[in-house]
């Protein structure tokens, strides 16, 4: 799979201390995106599931955030990563330009599988006209922070 970066000790990409995996490739092309270099999957570095799990899971104090790019763009491989990280006790947030409903109804079984490993989903494309810097863990008002374990919107 293609990975842009793995960043340890983030406090802005979900609750608590987190390791963030930034995946390459994104089909949304949101105007005002904070990471447009991630749109092109060729900009990432090729990594195996094992390499990503070893690096992301190496800090016992952090949980995991899947970001991008679009983690659901490489759902087959990212689902394997998420499964392995859940097995070692990690709580997983995922940022996606898709909506929860789009992922639930996706024809791609790997997108649905990956969704099943996520505890919290921040969904919806970034919309520059709805940008709001006062929002917690999201960039525009249309985006939702959804606790998937209780199926409720958090903020």
UniProtKB/TrEMBL annotation:
Keyword line: 4Fe-4S, Iron, Iron-sulfur, Metal-binding, Oxidoreductase, S-adenosyl-L-methionine
Statement: the UniProt record of this protein carries the keyword Iron: yes
Pfam hit, one: Fer4_12
Transmembrane segments: none
InterPro entries per the UniProt record, alphabetical: Aldolase_TIM, NrdG, Organic_radical-activating, Radical_activat_CS, rSAM, rSAM_sf
Radical SAM core domain: residues covered: 12-155
Catalytic reaction list: glycyl-[protein] + reduced [flavodoxin] + S-adenosyl-L-methionine = glycin-2-yl radical-[protein] + semiquinone [flavodoxin] + 5'-deoxyadenosine + L-methionine + H(+)
Similarity comment: family membership: Belongs to the organic radical-activating enzymes family.
Protein name: Anaerobic ribonucleoside-triphosphate reductase-activating protein
């Amino acid at each position: 799979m293609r990975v842009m970066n793995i960043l340890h000790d983030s406090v802005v990409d979900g609750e608590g201390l987190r390791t963030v995996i930034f995946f390459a490739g994104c089909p949304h092309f949101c105007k005002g995106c904070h990471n447009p270099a991630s749109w092109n999957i060729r900009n990432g570095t090729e990594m195996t599931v094992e390499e990503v799990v070893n690096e992301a899971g190496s800090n016992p104090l952090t949980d995991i955030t899947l970001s991008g790019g679009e983690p659901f763009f490489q759902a087959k491989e990212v689902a394997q990563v998420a499964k392995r990280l859940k097995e070692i006790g990690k709580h997983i947030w995922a940022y996606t330009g898709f909506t929860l409903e789009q992922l639930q109804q996706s024809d791609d079984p790997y997108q649905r599988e990956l969704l099943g490993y996520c505890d919290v989903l921040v969904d919806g494309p970034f919309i520059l006209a709805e940008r709001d810097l006062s929002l917690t863990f999201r960039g525009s008002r249309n985006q939702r922070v959804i606790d998937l374990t209780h199926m409720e919107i958090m903020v």
